[in-house]
Design goal:
Length: 316
């Protein structure tokens, strides 16, 4: 999997070494530069009023230097890997600062440990969700304490589209999932869910016979799209398993993930309609709420982050 040139790993305080170790491994495999980043919250100005001899700016600088040293200590065991490494500590909102760094440095992959609530089984908290919505490059959220390679990789694609942008996204998802599965010697599962729009109301208005014909035509269209997508080398690979299902996308994808005990799901996270860059897809949002495995999320080509848009508007 040699497709990344600049990787950013978020190593916030309290995160385990899962993201760092995988980021280093990917940087070595890809010959990529690696940025390891932490973000601290700004020191409240009121803190500086406690002692006039120690303003809040000085406290902020002390905290930054302390975090920089901690990052340096954490990365010391990778000193002999010959990875081009940069350590960064920023101040502000974590997701915002990460995305600003992605835009400024043309980062093409962000890796972080999932940050959700273990008591409920949910993995993705506020920072992860913000990255999924707004980060322009792929975001890889790793389940904490993941050790060793993945065994089951699930790629979720939308074959029920004639939109060229999303057809390209399907291909990007499949290519990336395939390369990961090959690198990890894992089984690759491809899931796509289809249906006839407004099927039940149509049945009441047009009758079962007519709608059944429409359903058959829709299924044929989706299967043709699958055949068009699954060309070499994927078509001949015995490690690729196809799950083409009819039903609710979120429910089916979650069910397949549970059935195969997926270690990683690769999918897009922006819906076809709505305001580009501001809305996460309904299917992705539903899946994320209950996902308990690692996730690699991609955006369509041409996606503009709201943070980048806001920055351009301010600069006018």
């Amino acid at each position: 999997m040699q497709r990344f040139k600049r990787i950013l790993c978020y190593a916030g305080t309290g995160s385990d070494e899962t993201a760092i170790s995988r980021a280093v491994g990917l940087a070595i495999t890809n010959g990529a530069a690696l940025t390891v980043m932490d973000v601290i919250k700004p020191i409240p100005k009121a803190v500086g009023l406690i002692t006039k001899a120690f303003p809040s700016n000085d406290l902020q600088n002390l905290v930054v230097k302390d975090r920089e040293q901690r990052l340096l200590d954490r990365m010391s065991e990778y000193a002999d890997t010959a990875v081009s490494l940069e350590l960064v500590v920023a101040s502000g909102d974590p997701a915002t600062e990460i995305i600003r760094r992605v835009i400024a440095e043309d980062i093409d992959l962000v890796i972080k440990t999932a940050d959700g609530f273990s008591t409920t089984g949910r993995l993705f908290g506020s920072v992860a969700r913000s990255l999924l919505r707004m980060c322009p490059c792929p975001v890889w959220l790793l389940k904490p304490e993941v050790h060793g390679p993945f065994d089951q990789v699930l790629a979720a694609i939308d074959l029920d589209t004639e939109d060229k942008v999303h057809q390209n996204l399907n291909r990007n998802i499949l290519e990336l999932a395939f390369s990961i599965a090959a690198r990890e010697d894992a089984q690759l599962h491809l899931v796509s869910v289809w249906g006839l729009w407004m099927e039940e109301p149509l049945r009441k208005r047009m009758g079962d016979d007519t709608v059944d014909r429409l359903v058959g035509m829709q299924e044929a269209k989706v299967r043709q799209a699958l055949d068009d997508l699954l060309q070499a080398p994927w078509a001949e690979d015995t490690h690729v398993h196809v799950h083409l299902e009819r039903g609710d996308p979120a429910e089916v994808i979650r069910a397949v993930a549970d059935q195969i005990e997926a270690d990683l799901i690769v999918m897009g996270t922006v819906c076809r309609t709505g305001v580009p860059g501001f809305l996460i897809g309904n299917t992705a949002d539903s899946i994320i709420s209950e996902l308990t495995c690692s996730m690699l999320a991609l955006k369509p080509t041409g996606f503009l982050s709201p943070i980048e848009v806001a920055g351009k508007e301010v600069g006018r």
